[in-house]
Each structure stands twice: as structure tokens, then as C-alpha cells.
User: What shape does this take?
Amino acid sequence: MDHFLYRDGALFAEDVPVAEIAAQVGTPFYCYSTATFERHFRLFDEALEGTDHLVCYAMKAASNQAILKTLAALGAGMDVVSGGEYARAKAAGVPGDRIVFSGVGKTREEIHTALTGGIRQFNVESEPEMEVINAVALELGVKAPITVRVNPDVDAKTHAKIATGKSENKFGIPISRAREVYAHAASLPGLEVIGIDVHIGSQLTQLEPFRLAYQKVAELTETLRADGHDIRRLDLGGGLGIPYERSNDAPPLPVEYGAMVKETLGHLNCEIEIEPGRLIAGNAGIMVSKVIYVKEGEDRQFMIIDGAMNDLIRPAMYEAHHDIIPVVEATPGEEPTTYDIVGPVCESGDTFAKGRTMAEVKPDDLVAFRSAGAYGAVMASEYNTRPLIPEVLVHGDQFAVIRRRPTFEEVINRDTIPEWL
Ligand code: LLP
Assistant: This one.
């Protein structure tokens, strides 16, 4: 169910015309659909029905407080990877026992904060980190619940920058060393070993890599249990991909993923945790931008828009495709045109699409980037002193600005002048 559809030729976000939001908040901006967030969370929750489970939203995908509150109200847990994300989850009212802490470089301070504020578990990524968690827990006189993230050496068949489950990646400990590392963990009195964690990458469009990894986790569960560890929770990470191009084959659905999880791991009677980010947030958001100029190049036309790589970096960083559609639907039968769609930032990499065929546009027309809800606003920067763009959340026929656009003055006033100047 798509909540960004045309009605009588005008693009709507749920029941709100996108052009109306643009008129009020200005462009560019991110616009999210509450109904889509809710639907996607429920798809995962229902896919694991019948097993003891918790869906921990990977909030790195989109972490605005309003989004977190929307999901937390449905019972979502959160997967956090920094002290900042932990603070965001707590600020949105998520209880500590629904927050899992992932990430390869958790600092002593972050560990301390999580142990005092409440944590479901740490997903430990290395032995040095395990030692630090142990030390902090002992100082505080508590036991830290942990899983160890194992690297199953599986090819996730995704973009190299977002694959994490091969031995050459920095993540987790090699699965071949797992017994040794678990024995080490069990010897540390500040730790309580409760399970196993795995995450092999993002934007996976096939089930097979997941299946291979989960089969290895199933075997490891039995081995570790035989070694005397009480393995009772399996954190399976995130990574299920979304269809970025509507013309392409759709990746597997959460229900198919859930069935595969039950098939590979169901017999172990473990509590299952998953950490989806992109599938929950990606198609819940669009980025809306305005055409500034159409410029004739020697052999191509450039559509220059007011959104840029600092607002949405995925095309520049991962050669990612985003469908770009006009906010006023093309008239049927109208001859399409081909554009290189670019932003105003002073880099050739500030290119969203090359040779994209779409309806003809003119200055001041609005365009929408589909599938921009995940890894969009959260990866934005203020490069070229372009203030972070606003985020808007739609709920039925209502909308609210959930992060406003800072003024130039606010941006500049974050700098301070040393006294010798
Ligand atoms: N759990 C862990 C430990 C992760 O590292 C990630 C993503 C997730 C869960 C969520 O994965 P998802 O369900 O969203 O695929 N910026 C990149 C994606 C980076 C993903 C990093 N880790 C992009 O824009 O494609």
C-alpha cells in the first residue's frame, strides 16, 4: 500500500497535497507518512507471530523523535549505535529493556550511560570491548547482558559499502573463533551471556544470504549450548531490502523473511530479535525539491534543483537510484524528456541521476524523490552552508513540521570566535 499517490494529477502524502506542504515550509524538505511507518513495523511484527520476538527498529535509518514515538507506541524496540541514539530512544520514551546497543566502537562513557539508564543487551563486537563492558559493569555492581556479534563470512550480495558479513569487514568476531570468545565472555563476572547476534549487510534483495547466515547461527547455538552457555536470544540484525525502482523485481517480503527465520531457527526455542531500518523507513518518506533552472548542456539537459548531495547523499555515495517524479502528474500522452538531475553544490558528484527520462519540467516545478525515508535526513550535512532541511510528518489529513529549518543566523551562531580575533 503506497501512501504517496497522485489524486487528480496532484501528488499526495496520505490525505495531504504535497504542494500544500511545500507552500508552507518551503523546499527542499523530507515528508514522511505515519501510516507507512506503522504498516511496515506491523508487517515485521506479524511475520514473527507465534515466536517470542521483538522488532528493534534500527533508528540510524531515520531517528526523528516523532518517528521514534510513532513506532514506540506500537511496541517497537530500538537498535542504537551511539550515545546520541541511546539518548534519542530514551527521550522518545522507549524503556531501557527495549533498547539494544550495537556498533563496533562503543566507548566507556556510552557503556556507562546504557548500564545506568537501562539496556536490553549489548551486541559485543570484539574482545577488547567485552573487557570494557565487564569492567564498567563491575564498577557499577551490575551484570551486563550481552550477545556476541559473529561474522559468518557470507556474501550479502549488496553494495560493497553496506556489506558487513564477510571476513574482510570490520564487524563482529569470526564465527570460527566463537567458542573461544564465548568461553572468555563466560569467565568475566560482569557479563551475562544471553545470546548470539548477526547482521550481514543492508539492502539485501534475496533471502539466500540470510538463510546461509542463520543456518550457521543455528549450528553455533547448539555448539555453544553443548559448551554450557545458556543461549536464549538470537539477534538477527536488519538488512531486508526495498524496491527502489518500481520497474524492478521486488525483494522478498517480511512475511517470507519471517517464514525463513522460523524454518531455520524455530526449533531452537530462542527469543528472536530483528533490527530492520530501511524497510520500515525507506518507503515511508520522500524528499521534495524545486526546479531552479533547466540548462542546456552540449549534449544533455541539466535539471538543477534546490536539493543537493548534502540533503540526500545516497546517489553520490552508493550510486543509489531514487525514482524522481513530478509533484504535478504528467499529462498522459505528453512527450517525456531526458535530464541529468543535479543539485547546486560545487561538486560533479552532486548528481542525483544521469539520463533520467521523465515529464518535462520548468523552473519552480516541484519534484519528489521516492524511497528517501531511510538514510536520507539522518545522513544530511550542512556542506556549502546549506542548513539541514526540515522534516514533516503526515498523519491522515494532518501534517506537522517535526524538525524545522534553521535560519542562516542559527547556523552561523554555532561557531564561536576565539578571543584573539
Ligand atoms: N543492524 C545493524 C547492526 C546495522 O549495522 C544496520 C545497518 C541495521 C541493523 C539496519 O539495516 P537495514 O535494515 O536498514 O538495512 N547508509 C546506507 C545503509 C547503511 C546501513 C548500516 N547498517 C544506505 O543509505 O544505503
